[in-house]
TrEMBL record:
Record InterPro entries: DHS-like_NAD/FAD-binding_dom, Macro_dom, Macro_dom-like, Sirtuin_cat_small_dom_sf, Ssirtuin_cat_dom
Signal sequence extent: none
Residues that bind Zn(2+): 456, 460, 494, 497
Organism per entry: Phaeomonas parva
Lineage, uppermost ranks: Eukaryota, Sar, Stramenopiles, Ochrophyta, Pinguiophyceae
Keywords, sorted A to Z: Glycosidase, Hydrolase, Metal-binding, NAD, Transferase, Zinc
Cofactor requirements of the protein: Zn(2+)
Short name of one Pfam family: Macro
Superkingdom: Eukaryota
A GO molecular-function descriptor: metal ion binding
Domain Macro: residue ranges: 98-294
Residue segments, region Disordered: 1-27
The protein, known as: Macro domain-containing protein
Residues in Deacetylase sirtuin-type domain copies: 307-630
Length: 669
């Protein structure tokens, strides 16, 4: 027998060197919490592996975000411990970290602008941009501030919101008084949940909507004063999915807060007000305007916005983008949801558009956007006939009926004027807008699937994927126009096994990628050829944010990095336009409408026969100097250190079904 403590084989050696885990370690807490979850959530957790970091995120996403039922006190206690173990040092803007903010004054009140994570601020209260239900966002992957705050505060926050909304007895609506809850696991003692106005995509705010946004700020200040709250931090209300123009929203926010603080009745009511900004554009707007607003008296008009903010600042980037595209030998088009946003059909972002398309979903089930329908098939209170009554109409609208936005035509015009057929499209969109707009389907990869197919949800076989048009032609006419339901027996079933079906779009471990593997193979081979060649390549990325960065943004950054001086990334995104500082890149903080001046610029270059510029590295460097404020640090290195790679080939390979069980390469962002 070997001496005590000496291993007899490699497995024992590994165990003998492993430290025993403390009872309160994150992995232990996650396992304890997972045992307290309903069975459906435990199954979801088990599908994502055993790493405590991945599972803790999945746990918090499932419990805090997707779960609309009350959470047990025992589970709350475990998650309290987990959040405490993961907590970071709070930001003390009113103390040790004051220099991180830009400060001004309104009377005796300090007014600051600070860019960072609002959930780390130690203030009396932070403001949450809530939806009208007041219970938080129920989409785990949605990056709205409502989601971020609930995730950081823990499930007790939703229970406090539930109680406050029951006492209120009415939904939150634009510009009405907020509900006030404790902050729970947040450094802030309170959270004020308020709803701002939602502006129809492509429209200007009405006078009523502007008044509602101003009222949201005033009502929060009034509620804070009534409760003795002395310091408060505001996010940029209504400027995300609610579509309020950022510049006008900033003007209204700054002016409204200044006017309220300068009223005699409010003198001395607040010690500090912080405007928390997140995007580069908001940071520039607030830091530029705030010194003017808070140096002026209440009676003076709001100073004009300096010319360096807005379209004048974007114009050089648009021109430079046109120059790179005009000189390119090949273009990779990478598109996210932002390219498909169009007035009248924006059912994901516009409550008005959603209600016009699916009035029964609003009337019967209280669902107000297509984002809220993402968890529809997990709701036990809605019959399958109603679920598929909506699903069939939605698949038909998104995959066949809703016309593509004007952005698709602009992309097509740009390609025709520059590289012809030497392009490839890589898109997370599942609405089939590229082939419907005349793009070559042989030069298209849709890794997230397509509404033009449906599949078995088990799935019973790897090839249980079927074209949806014939099924939809049969099913959609059967939907009752009043109830939105299908008649009994009309719910689509798998032709192979008779099981339940769903659109062939990535929404869980059941997703079948088989239909798209040839697309991926063609794209990988084409990009490999570009890397091995001496061709100049532009990656034109439009509307791809951080909902699925490993599908769109990260692979594109990796490709440009591998191309070196021959590659340039043009990133067009109104809210998330930051680019890495170590690659040739142009950041354009606009929507797909930025494609129009780029297309016009290409035509001007073509007509003038302007000579090509061979030194791409120097051009890109000059562009980064000009728009340096839009360029983030090398964030990609953080992800590489965390997940072991930042390689576009691995990102794409992970999207294939056969890699779902490969723990070494699986990622969960």
């Amino acid at each position: 027998m070997p001496p005590q403590g000496v291993a007899t084989h490699a497995g024992d050696a590994s165990r003998s060197r492993r430290r025993p885990r403390k009872p309160g370690s994150p992995s232990v807490l996650v396992r304890r919490a997972s045992m307290l979850l309903p069975p459906i959530w435990r199954a979801q957790l088990s599908a994502h592996g055993n790493s405590h970091r991945r599972v803790s995120r999945e746990l918090l996403g499932d419990v805090l975000i997707a779960n609309d039922h009350p959470v047990s006190s025992e589970l709350c206690e475990v998650i309290d411990e987990l959040l405490a173990a993961e907590a970071v040092e709070p930001v003390e803007l009113l103390g040790a970290h004051a220099r991180q903010a830009q400060w001004g004054h309104a009377g005796a009140t300090r007014v600051g602008v600070w860019r960072g994570d609002i959930t780390t601020l130690r203030v009396d209260a932070i403001v949450n941009a809530a939806n009208d239900a007041g219970l938080g966002c129920f989409q785990p992957e949605h990056r709205c501030i409502d989601n971020v705050i609930h995730r950081a505060a823990g499930p007790r926050l939703r229970e406090s919101c539930r109680k406050a909304m029951q006492e209120r007895r009415s939904r939150l609506s634009a510009g009405t008084a907020p509900i006030v809850t404790p902050g729970h696991a947040l450094p802030a003692r309170h959270v004020l949940h308020v709803t701002g106005p939602q502006v129809r995509s492509g429209s200007e705010p009405t006078a009523e909507q502007s008044a509602q946004l101003a009222a949201a700020y005033r009502n929060c200040l009034g509620a804070a004063k009534a409760r003795g709250i002395r310091s408060i931090a505001f996010p940029c209300l209504s400027t995300g999915l609610f579509g309020f123009p950022q510049q006008l929203a900033a003007e209204l926010a700054l002016r409204t807060v200044r006017d309220w603080l300068c009223l005699d009745a409010n003198a001395g009511a607040m010690d500090a007000v912080v405007f928390n900004v997140f995007t580069p554009k908001d940071a520039e707007l607030y830091t530029t305007m705030a010194p003017h607003v808070f140096s002026a008296s209440q009676a003076e008009p709001l100073p004009a916005l300096p010319a360096k903010v807005g379209d004048l600042a974007v114009a050089p980037a648009l021109r430079r983008a046109a120059e790179f595209l005009a000189e390119a030998d090949a273009v990779i088009v990478s598109a996210g949801a932002g390219l498909s946003v169009a007035a009248g059909t924006n059912v994901y972002g516009s409550k008005r558009d959603f209600e016009a398309a699916y009035p029964d979903m609003v009337r019967r089930w209280g669902i107000r956007t297509a984002y809220e329908c993402m968890g529809l098939f997990y709701r036990d209170d809605i019959p399958n006939e109603a679920k598929w009554g909506y699903q069939a109409r939605h698949m038909n609208n998104m995959g066949f009926s809703f016309p593509p936005s004007g952005g698709y035509g602009l992309v097509k015009d740009i390609l025709a004027a520059t590289v012809g057929e030497e392009y490839f499209v890589h898109t997370s969109n599942v609405d089939d807008c590229f082939p419907r707009s005349g793009f070559n389907p042989e030069r298209l990869y849709t890794p997230q699937g397509s509404w033009t197919f449906y599949q078995c949800m088990r799935p019973c076989r790897s090839d249980s994927v079927f074209p949806s048009w014939r099924m939809l032609d049969e099913v959609v006419p059967q939907v009752d126009p009043e109830s939105g339901e299908l008649p009994p027996g009309a719910v689509p079933r798998c032709p192979n096994c008779g099981g339940l079906t769903f659109g062939n779009v990535r929404g869980g471990s059941w997703f079948l990628h088989k239909e798209y593997e040839e697309q991926q193979d063609r794209m990988v081979a084409w990009v490999d050829e570009l890397v091995a060649s001496d061709k100049k390549v532009v990656v034109l990325e439009i509307g791809a944010g951080f909902n699925t960065p490993t599908v769109t943004r990260f692979p594109m950054e990796s490709i440009v990095r591998e191309l070196g001086e021959r590659g340039v990334l043009i990133r067009i995104n109104p809210a998330e336009a930051e680019v890495p500082g170590d690659i040739n890149a142009i950041s354009i903080p606009r929507g797909w409408d930025a494609l129009r001046p780029i297309s016009e610029g290409i035509e001007e270059i073509r007509v003038s026969a302007e000579p090509a510029r061979a030194d791409w590295a120097l051009q890109a460097h000059a562009q980064q100097q000009h728009l340096g404020r839009h360029h983030s640090s090398d964030m990609w290195r953080v992800f590489k250190a965390r997940y072991g790679h930042f390689d576009w080939r691995i990102f794409l390979r992970q999207l294939r079904a056969e890699d779902d069980d490969d723990e070494e390469e699986r990622m969960n962002l």
